[in-house]
Amino acid sequence: MAEMKLVVVGAGGRMGQALVRAIQAMDGVTLAGAIDREGAAALGKDAGELAGVGPLGVTIGDDPLPVFAKAEGVIDFTSPAASVAFAEIAAQARIAHVIGTTGCSEADDEAIRTAARHAPIVKSGNMSLGVNLLAVLVKQAARALDEDFDIEVLEMHHRMKVDAPSGTALLLGQAAASGREINLKQRSVRSRDGHTGARTPGDIGFATLRGGSVVGDHTVMLAGPQERIELRHVAEDRGIFARGAVKAALWARGRKPGLYSMADVLGLDG
What we know:
By secondary structure, the chain is an alpha/beta fold. The chain contains 10 helices and 12 strands. The protein has helices at residues 14-25, 47-51, 64-69, 80-93, 106-115, 129-144, 167-180, 184-187, 239-252, 262-266; strands at residues 4-9, 29-35, 60-61, 73-76, 96-99, 120-123, 150-157, 188-189, 204-210, 216-224, 227-235, 258-260. It has a 7-stranded parallel beta sheet, sandwiched between helices. A 5-stranded mixed beta sheet has the order 8-9-7-10-11. The chain is elongated and about 60 Å long.
């Protein structure tokens, strides 16, 4: 089978450059286009040179329409509004869309679900194998342990991350909620300050830390009487997310329209 032609959106950013490097290093894919926002400093530059892999003959532009038209897939770690717009264009082009963007609202997710009626979309709060395996383990642990074990999700990222809790923390929280068969939105605690009173049994707590250059550090604690279980994942390089996203694109190639997750891609069954 010929190499899959992929477009990277947000190609001038750190994740965009990591995606270009991953595409260049992996078999079965080739970089067919690179897009960044209007006015971005990366516009007009060679995507390969910017990413440090040498010239690839792919110039970063700001018009996705002609680029999507000649591609088979797009990989997107941008912003919620941009991802919704790209989902609509990818759906019109009937190409696979891999979304690693976090911080999406319910309205954003609904728009993405609508686009998935016309093209395959893989969307996940984290694209790494390790995190998605961790989510399965969290779900199993939450199912096995009753409410005597309180669940807390602790996450830390670099100082530039704009959304909190992280998409990965929410993915892990949802895994725990699924294991307990509860509604995460109704039972999550996002902040504690002042005289909060005793912890409500069965709630799932989130704690967010920001600082330095931390790529991603997530711990799910199940704290019970006289014992505590901690399930942890540490990301040391953005390349793990980029490689996972490229694998997701290859998996989605030729799939029927629908909204998929990395658990689908990796064949993980919680």
